[in-house]
Amino acid sequence: MDRRSFLLGTSTLALSQLLFGCGGNNQTQLKVQLLKGSIPGQVVNQFHKGLQQQVQLKFTPVEQIQGLFQQLQNWQQKPKATDEQGWKRFIPFMQGQKTADADLVTLGDYWLKAAIEQKLIQPLQEVQGNQLKQWSALDEKWKLLVTRNEQGNLDTQGKVWGAPYRWGSTVIVYNRDKLRKLGWTPKDWSDLWRDGVQQQISLLNQPREVIGLVLKKLGKSYNTENLDQVPDLEKELQTLNQQVKFYSSNNYLEPLIMGDTWLAVGWSSDVLPVLGRYPQLGAVIPQSGTAIWADLWVRPAGITTKSSLSDQWIDFCWQPSTAKQISVLTKSNSPISTNITASDIPEPLWSLLESDVYDGREVFDKSEFLLPLPPSAIKQYESLFAKIKV
Questions:
Q1: Is 213 within 8 Å of 189 (Cβ atoms)?
Q2: Which of 173, 301, 317, 387 is deepest in the core (most CB within 10 A)?
Q3: Which residues form a coiled coil (predicted)?
Q4: Helix (H, G, I), strand (E, B), or coil: what is residue 307?
Q5: How many other C-beta atoms can be found within 10 angstroms of the C-beta atom of residue 96?
Q6: What does DSSP assign to residue 7?
Q7: Residue 269 in contact with residue 4, Cβ under 8 Å?
Q8: Residues ≥6 apart with Cβ < 8 Å to 33
Q9: Where do the domains of the chain lie, and which CATH numbers do they carry?
């Protein structure tokens, strides 16, 4: 599961690169493969200008986190005996490359366990290490998220496997014009069960997200392992399903804009960029808490260079002024306190961006990351989700 786990399209093949610094084989390099749109180009430029040595920065954006994860996998694959002359040679990160071609890569927090288990990445540091100078500025919730054991599970005695640099949440987005005649706007998950919106809602096509929001409505955790022990869960899901027009993880905004649906559950990374362009749309973070996602910097396995450049880049992203830029320009929240004010961002986005780890402490404390679950629990989620959609 991933909030952007779509099939690789042709747009992935036509990626531009942010390149700063003159060439030269002997020049120190920092190579970063990042999620497209998650870091503004001017931030990279500022980092380059602030370096004390001559460095070449190569930042290559990739369309989807799934593509970045597959790239990490490809770097660790043993070369095949047969000569690959098929379709894979046309995809840059599927050309049988033996070693990683990046010092840092963007990965979503949901993929972290799999990346650790499959030995695709290496720790950024020991928990007690001091390479990352800004580590202490992170809220404890972020430190816990990326401190894991060798199996990829949360472990306060583990190692630091990722550096969060921006985050967002699952939100309710709605068409103001359609709901005005009903006399209310959504505030919490329970509003999805209201009269008047039957067959007017779209939900994400993701078991953890849909079942999770119902669990949240019932006062339970998104990460509940035994669904059989939650009274009325299936009944609530069946009732919610009657309100749903369709399930989709990528095509839920256009019907809402057109008025074909009235409410949708979606990811803030999709929703925030369109709010300013379509004033008929509003969005809210449910008051009882929601699911949180994070974009992380991870270090591919096999990178042996001892250059401190990658640590410098991570620390630069965690500086308050840089974190504020990333947050405002990419329309996301920051794991670092940024002191964003209403004048920094358009009004439609304020209610969604003010909920960072300090300004929106109450809602943030109620919200949860989608943490790894045992295979038996995952099967429960998938089975129940398939059952209620029939």
A1: yes
A2: 173
A3: 223-250
A4: coil
A5: 13
A6: P
A7: yes
A8: 60, 62, 68, 71, 101, 102, 104, 105, 106
A9: 10-167+292-365 (3.40.190.10), 169-291+368-389 (3.40.190.10)
Distance, in Å, from the CA atom of 18 to the CA atom of 58, rounded to the nearest integer, reads: 6
Q: Tokens representing 131?
A: 């390479």
Contacts of 302 (CB under 8 A, 6+ apart): 75, 76, 99, 100, 122
For residues 343 and 365, is the Cβ–Cβ distance under 8 A? no
Strands 125-126 and 159-160, by their bridges, are antiparallel
Judge whether 294 and 320 are in contact, CB under 8 Å. Answer: no
Q: Tell me the C-alpha distance between 207 and 187, whole Å.
A: 22
Residues in the chain: 390
- Structure-token pair, residue 297: 């910097």
pLDDT string in tens for the chain (390-residue length): 444 443 222 232 233 455 555 555 567 889 999 999 999 999 999 999 999 778 899 999 999 999 999 999 999 886 655 545 555 555 555 544 557 789 999 999 999 999 999 999 999 986 655 678 889 889 899 999 999 999 999 999 999 999 999 999 999 999 999 999 899 999 999 999 999 999 999 999 999 999 999 999 999 999 999 999 999 999 999 999 999 999 999 999 999 999 999 999 999 999 988 988 999 999 999 999 999 999 999 999 988 765 689 999 999 999 999 998 998 888 888 898 776 666 666 665 656 665 443 345 678 889 999 999 999 999 999 999 999 998
- The type of residue at 95 is Q
Handedness of CA 40, 335, 103, 151 (dihedral sign): negative
CB within 8 A of 299, min separation 6: which ones? Answer: 103, 104, 105, 121, 122, 123, 124, 310
